[in-house]
Amino acid sequence: MASFTVTALAPALGAEISGLDLRAPLAADGIAALKRAWREHLVLRFRGQLLSDPELLALSRVFGELDPPGPNPYGKPFLAEFPEINVISNVKKDGVPIGNLGDGEAVWHCDMTYIETPPMAALLHALDVPPSGGDTFWANMYLACETLPRALRQAIDGRRAIHDATYNSAGMMRKGMKDVTDPREAPGARHPLVVRHPETGRAALYLGRRRNSYILGLPLDESNELLDQLWTHATQPEFTFRQQWQPHDLILWDNRCTLHRRDSFDPGVSRIMHRTQIKGAAPVPYVEPGTMAA
Ligand code: SIN
Protein backbone atom coordinates (compact mmCIF):
# COMPACT_ATOMS: atom_id res chain seq x y z
CA MET A 1 0.00 0.00 0.00
CA ALA A 2 1.41 3.40 -0.99
CA SER A 3 1.98 5.54 2.01
CA PHE A 4 1.41 9.27 1.97
CA THR A 5 -0.16 11.78 4.26
CA VAL A 6 -3.06 14.08 3.47
CA THR A 7 -3.27 17.43 5.25
CA ALA A 8 -6.15 19.81 4.61
CA LEU A 9 -4.98 23.23 3.43
CA ALA A 10 -8.20 25.20 3.93
CA PRO A 11 -11.62 24.46 5.40
CA ALA A 12 -13.31 24.70 1.99
CA LEU A 13 -10.96 22.66 -0.21
CA GLY A 14 -7.36 21.80 -0.93
CA ALA A 15 -5.02 19.25 0.66
CA GLU A 16 -1.30 18.71 0.74
CA ILE A 17 -0.07 15.23 -0.16
CA SER A 18 3.32 14.44 1.32
CA GLY A 19 5.51 11.39 1.18
CA LEU A 20 5.26 10.72 -2.57
CA ASP A 21 7.86 11.16 -5.30
CA LEU A 22 5.72 11.68 -8.39
CA ARG A 23 8.57 10.69 -10.72
CA ALA A 24 8.15 7.08 -9.60
CA PRO A 25 5.26 5.04 -11.04
CA LEU A 26 2.34 4.85 -8.63
CA ALA A 27 0.95 1.43 -7.69
CA ALA A 28 -2.76 0.78 -8.33
CA ASP A 29 -3.65 0.98 -4.62
CA GLY A 30 -1.74 4.27 -4.32
CA ILE A 31 -3.60 5.71 -7.30
CA ALA A 32 -6.92 4.65 -5.83
CA ALA A 33 -6.04 6.26 -2.47
CA LEU A 34 -4.89 9.43 -4.20
CA LYS A 35 -8.13 9.63 -6.18
CA ARG A 36 -10.14 9.21 -2.97
CA ALA A 37 -8.23 12.13 -1.40
CA TRP A 38 -8.76 14.13 -4.57
CA ARG A 39 -12.51 13.50 -4.61
CA GLU A 40 -12.67 14.66 -1.00
CA HIS A 41 -10.45 17.76 -1.26
CA LEU A 42 -10.87 18.73 -4.97
CA VAL A 43 -7.41 20.31 -5.17
CA LEU A 44 -4.24 18.42 -4.24
CA ARG A 45 -0.82 20.00 -3.74
CA PHE A 46 2.45 18.07 -3.92
CA ARG A 47 5.57 20.03 -2.94
CA GLY A 48 9.15 19.55 -4.16
CA GLN A 49 8.34 17.56 -7.31
CA LEU A 50 11.29 17.82 -9.74
CA LEU A 51 9.39 16.61 -12.78
CA SER A 52 10.66 16.72 -16.35
CA ASP A 53 8.06 17.31 -19.06
CA PRO A 54 7.84 13.59 -19.96
CA GLU A 55 7.37 12.84 -16.24
CA LEU A 56 4.62 15.44 -16.01
CA LEU A 57 2.91 13.82 -19.00
CA ALA A 58 3.26 10.32 -17.53
CA LEU A 59 1.83 11.49 -14.20
CA SER A 60 -1.04 13.26 -15.94
CA ARG A 61 -2.00 10.07 -17.80
CA VAL A 62 -2.61 8.41 -14.44
CA PHE A 63 -5.76 10.54 -14.20
CA GLY A 64 -7.03 9.94 -17.73
CA GLU A 65 -6.50 10.72 -21.37
CA LEU A 66 -4.63 13.95 -22.06
CA ASP A 67 -6.65 16.82 -23.47
CA PRO A 68 -4.71 19.25 -25.66
CA PRO A 69 -4.64 22.89 -24.55
CA GLY A 70 -7.24 25.27 -25.96
CA PRO A 71 -6.21 27.61 -28.78
CA ASN A 72 -3.89 30.27 -27.39
CA PRO A 73 -3.77 33.84 -28.74
CA TYR A 74 -0.70 32.99 -30.87
CA GLY A 75 -2.32 30.01 -32.62
CA LYS A 76 0.41 27.36 -32.14
CA PRO A 77 1.65 25.17 -29.29
CA PHE A 78 4.21 26.75 -26.97
CA LEU A 79 6.27 23.54 -26.76
CA ALA A 80 6.61 22.02 -30.22
CA GLU A 81 8.02 18.80 -28.73
CA PHE A 82 5.19 18.42 -26.19
CA PRO A 83 2.06 20.00 -27.70
CA GLU A 84 -0.07 18.47 -24.90
CA ILE A 85 1.68 20.82 -22.45
CA ASN A 86 0.47 24.37 -22.11
CA VAL A 87 2.99 26.93 -20.88
CA ILE A 88 1.67 29.60 -18.53
CA SER A 89 4.25 32.36 -18.38
CA ASN A 90 5.01 36.05 -18.68
CA VAL A 91 8.52 35.41 -20.04
CA LYS A 92 9.43 36.55 -23.54
CA LYS A 93 12.32 35.21 -25.62
CA ASP A 94 13.48 37.56 -28.36
CA GLY A 95 10.32 39.56 -27.76
CA VAL A 96 8.06 36.51 -28.24
CA PRO A 97 5.99 35.15 -25.30
CA ILE A 98 7.02 31.61 -24.31
CA GLY A 99 3.63 31.07 -22.70
CA ASN A 100 0.10 32.24 -22.08
CA LEU A 101 -1.66 34.64 -19.68
CA GLY A 102 1.16 37.17 -19.15
CA ASP A 103 1.63 38.81 -15.74
CA GLY A 104 -1.84 40.24 -15.18
CA GLU A 105 -4.71 38.90 -13.15
CA ALA A 106 -6.45 35.82 -14.55
CA VAL A 107 -10.08 36.17 -13.51
CA TRP A 108 -12.19 33.43 -11.92
CA HIS A 109 -12.93 30.67 -14.39
CA CYS A 110 -13.30 27.01 -15.01
CA ASP A 111 -11.12 25.68 -17.84
CA MET A 112 -12.44 25.49 -21.38
CA THR A 113 -16.11 25.24 -20.50
CA TYR A 114 -16.79 27.01 -23.80
CA ILE A 115 -16.49 23.58 -25.48
CA GLU A 116 -19.05 20.75 -25.22
CA THR A 117 -16.68 18.44 -23.34
CA PRO A 118 -14.46 20.54 -21.05
CA PRO A 119 -11.43 18.93 -19.41
CA MET A 120 -12.21 17.19 -16.14
CA ALA A 121 -8.91 18.06 -14.49
CA ALA A 122 -5.67 19.96 -14.84
CA LEU A 123 -2.16 19.67 -13.43
CA LEU A 124 0.03 22.72 -12.98
CA HIS A 125 3.76 22.34 -12.32
CA ALA A 126 5.66 25.39 -11.09
CA LEU A 127 9.11 25.72 -12.65
CA ASP A 128 9.89 29.33 -11.79
CA VAL A 129 7.84 31.48 -9.44
CA PRO A 130 8.02 35.12 -8.35
CA PRO A 131 9.04 35.89 -4.76
CA SER A 132 5.57 37.36 -4.25
CA GLY A 133 2.38 37.76 -6.26
CA GLY A 134 0.96 35.34 -8.81
CA ASP A 135 -0.93 33.40 -6.13
CA THR A 136 -3.65 31.10 -7.44
CA PHE A 137 -7.03 30.60 -5.75
CA TRP A 138 -9.53 27.79 -6.11
CA ALA A 139 -13.19 27.88 -5.02
CA ASN A 140 -15.38 24.91 -4.10
CA MET A 141 -18.49 24.77 -6.30
CA TYR A 142 -20.14 21.97 -4.30
CA LEU A 143 -20.16 24.30 -1.32
CA ALA A 144 -21.31 27.21 -3.44
CA CYS A 145 -24.21 25.10 -4.68
CA GLU A 146 -25.18 23.68 -1.30
CA THR A 147 -25.27 27.14 0.30
CA LEU A 148 -27.12 28.96 -2.48
CA PRO A 149 -30.06 30.94 -1.09
CA ARG A 150 -33.23 29.04 -1.93
CA ALA A 151 -34.61 31.78 -4.21
CA LEU A 152 -31.41 31.87 -6.21
CA ARG A 153 -31.35 28.10 -6.55
CA GLN A 154 -34.97 28.11 -7.71
CA ALA A 155 -34.28 30.92 -10.19
CA ILE A 156 -31.65 28.81 -11.98
CA ASP A 157 -33.36 25.45 -11.61
CA GLY A 158 -33.16 23.56 -14.90
CA ARG A 159 -31.49 26.48 -16.67
CA ARG A 160 -28.42 26.60 -18.89
CA ALA A 161 -25.92 29.37 -19.56
CA ILE A 162 -23.72 30.32 -22.49
CA HIS A 163 -20.00 29.82 -21.84
CA ASP A 164 -18.33 32.37 -24.09
CA ALA A 165 -15.34 31.21 -26.11
CA THR A 166 -14.10 34.65 -27.11
CA TYR A 167 -11.68 35.64 -24.35
CA ASN A 168 -9.25 33.78 -22.12
CA SER A 169 -9.07 34.44 -18.39
CA ALA A 170 -6.42 37.13 -18.90
CA GLY A 171 -8.85 39.03 -21.13
CA MET A 172 -6.99 38.20 -24.37
CA MET A 173 -9.06 37.39 -27.42
CA ARG A 174 -8.58 33.82 -28.67
CA LYS A 175 -7.27 33.43 -32.17
CA GLY A 176 -10.02 33.54 -34.80
CA MET A 177 -12.61 35.14 -32.45
CA LYS A 178 -14.51 38.41 -32.90
CA ASP A 179 -15.57 40.84 -30.19
CA VAL A 180 -18.95 40.05 -28.62
CA THR A 181 -21.36 42.96 -28.24
CA ASP A 182 -24.39 40.96 -27.09
CA PRO A 183 -23.81 38.01 -24.70
CA ARG A 184 -26.94 36.33 -26.09
CA GLU A 185 -24.99 35.82 -29.30
CA ALA A 186 -21.70 34.75 -27.75
CA PRO A 187 -20.10 31.67 -29.32
CA GLY A 188 -19.57 28.76 -26.95
CA ALA A 189 -21.21 25.76 -25.31
CA ARG A 190 -24.48 25.93 -23.36
CA HIS A 191 -24.12 24.06 -20.07
CA PRO A 192 -26.47 23.45 -17.12
CA LEU A 193 -25.94 25.90 -14.25
CA VAL A 194 -26.08 23.08 -11.74
CA VAL A 195 -24.28 19.92 -12.80
CA ARG A 196 -23.97 16.41 -11.41
CA HIS A 197 -20.38 15.42 -10.74
CA PRO A 198 -19.98 12.13 -12.61
CA GLU A 199 -17.96 10.44 -9.85
CA THR A 200 -19.35 11.79 -6.59
CA GLY A 201 -22.93 12.36 -7.80
CA ARG A 202 -22.91 15.70 -5.95
CA ALA A 203 -24.43 18.92 -7.27
CA ALA A 204 -21.97 21.64 -8.27
CA LEU A 205 -22.57 25.18 -9.45
CA TYR A 206 -21.16 25.43 -12.97
CA LEU A 207 -20.44 29.01 -13.98
CA GLY A 208 -17.49 28.92 -16.40
CA ARG A 209 -16.55 32.58 -16.55
CA ARG A 210 -18.54 35.76 -16.03
CA ARG A 211 -17.63 37.72 -19.15
CA ASN A 212 -20.33 37.39 -21.83
CA SER A 213 -22.18 34.74 -19.87
CA TYR A 214 -25.93 34.61 -20.41
CA ILE A 215 -28.69 32.47 -18.87
CA LEU A 216 -30.73 31.12 -21.75
CA GLY A 217 -34.38 32.10 -21.91
CA LEU A 218 -34.14 35.14 -19.61
CA PRO A 219 -34.23 38.85 -20.48
CA LEU A 220 -30.62 40.04 -20.63
CA ASP A 221 -30.85 42.35 -17.60
CA GLU A 222 -32.45 39.59 -15.51
CA SER A 223 -29.74 37.17 -16.59
CA ASN A 224 -27.01 39.68 -15.71
CA GLU A 225 -28.51 40.34 -12.29
CA LEU A 226 -28.77 36.63 -11.49
CA LEU A 227 -25.25 35.92 -12.76
CA ASP A 228 -23.81 38.73 -10.65
CA GLN A 229 -25.50 37.28 -7.57
CA LEU A 230 -24.28 33.77 -8.39
CA TRP A 231 -20.69 34.91 -8.94
CA THR A 232 -20.62 36.98 -5.74
CA HIS A 233 -21.91 34.00 -3.80
CA ALA A 234 -19.61 31.43 -5.46
CA THR A 235 -16.35 33.31 -5.00
CA GLN A 236 -16.69 34.39 -1.38
CA PRO A 237 -13.43 33.85 0.54
CA GLU A 238 -14.93 31.11 2.77
CA PHE A 239 -15.20 28.86 -0.27
CA THR A 240 -11.61 29.30 -1.42
CA PHE A 241 -8.07 28.01 -0.98
CA ARG A 242 -5.07 30.27 -1.71
CA GLN A 243 -1.91 28.77 -3.20
CA GLN A 244 1.35 30.65 -2.63
CA TRP A 245 3.68 28.93 -5.03
CA GLN A 246 7.08 27.41 -4.34
CA PRO A 247 9.28 26.08 -7.15
CA HIS A 248 8.31 22.51 -8.06
CA ASP A 249 4.90 22.61 -6.50
CA LEU A 250 2.51 20.44 -8.47
CA ILE A 251 -1.21 21.11 -8.18
CA LEU A 252 -3.94 18.81 -9.44
CA TRP A 253 -7.49 20.15 -9.53
CA ASP A 254 -10.93 18.92 -10.42
CA ASN A 255 -12.29 21.22 -13.13
CA ARG A 256 -15.85 19.93 -12.70
CA CYS A 257 -16.45 21.29 -9.22
CA THR A 258 -14.00 24.19 -8.77
CA LEU A 259 -13.28 27.63 -10.16
CA HIS A 260 -9.82 29.21 -10.10
CA ARG A 261 -8.20 32.59 -10.55
CA ARG A 262 -4.70 34.03 -10.37
CA ASP A 263 -3.29 37.26 -8.94
CA SER A 264 -1.18 39.59 -11.05
CA PHE A 265 2.54 39.85 -10.33
CA ASP A 266 5.55 42.07 -11.00
CA PRO A 267 6.22 42.10 -14.78
CA GLY A 268 9.95 42.31 -14.02
CA VAL A 269 10.12 38.82 -12.51
CA SER A 270 9.61 35.55 -14.29
CA ARG A 271 6.92 32.96 -13.66
CA ILE A 272 6.93 29.70 -15.66
CA MET A 273 4.40 26.91 -15.19
CA HIS A 274 3.80 23.80 -17.28
CA ARG A 275 0.25 22.60 -17.43
CA THR A 276 -1.62 19.55 -18.68
CA GLN A 277 -5.29 18.74 -18.69
CA ILE A 278 -7.36 15.58 -18.74
CA LYS A 279 -10.28 14.90 -21.08
CA GLY A 280 -13.74 15.13 -19.59
CA ALA A 281 -17.32 14.40 -20.61
CA ALA A 282 -20.19 16.76 -21.41
CA PRO A 283 -21.57 18.17 -18.11
CA VAL A 284 -25.01 16.82 -17.19
CA PRO A 285 -27.66 18.63 -15.17
CA TYR A 286 -28.09 17.70 -11.52
CA VAL A 287 -31.48 16.23 -10.78
CA GLU A 288 -32.66 16.10 -7.14
CA PRO A 289 -33.16 12.48 -6.05
CA GLY A 290 -36.83 11.56 -6.27
CA THR A 291 -37.60 14.07 -9.02
CA MET A 292 -37.90 13.44 -12.75
CA ALA A 293 -35.40 14.89 -15.21
CA ALA A 294 -36.98 17.62 -17.34
C1 SIN B 1 -4.64 28.88 -15.09
O1 SIN B 1 -5.65 29.56 -15.08
O2 SIN B 1 -4.62 27.73 -15.46
C2 SIN B 1 -3.34 29.50 -14.63
C3 SIN B 1 -3.24 29.58 -13.19
C4 SIN B 1 -1.94 30.20 -12.77
O3 SIN B 1 -1.23 30.81 -13.58
O4 SIN B 1 -1.62 30.05 -11.59
Automatic annotation (TrEMBL):
Please provide, in alphabetical order, the Gene Ontology terms of the cellular component aspect for this entry: cytoplasm
TauD/TfdA-like domain residues are 6-276
Record-linked InterPro entries: AtsK-like, TauD-like_sf, TauD/TfdA-like
Keyword tags? Dioxygenase, Iron, Metal-binding, Oxidoreductase
Superkingdom as given in the UniProt entry: Bacteria
Q: Which GO terms describe its biological process?
A: sulfur compound metabolic process
**Pfam family example for this protein?**
TauD
Report a single Gene Ontology molecular function.
taurine dioxygenase activity
The UniProt similarity line reads:
Belongs to the TfdA dioxygenase family.
Q: Tell me the protein's name.
A: TauD/TfdA-like domain-containing protein
Q: What is the protein's species of origin?
A: Bordetella genomosp. 10
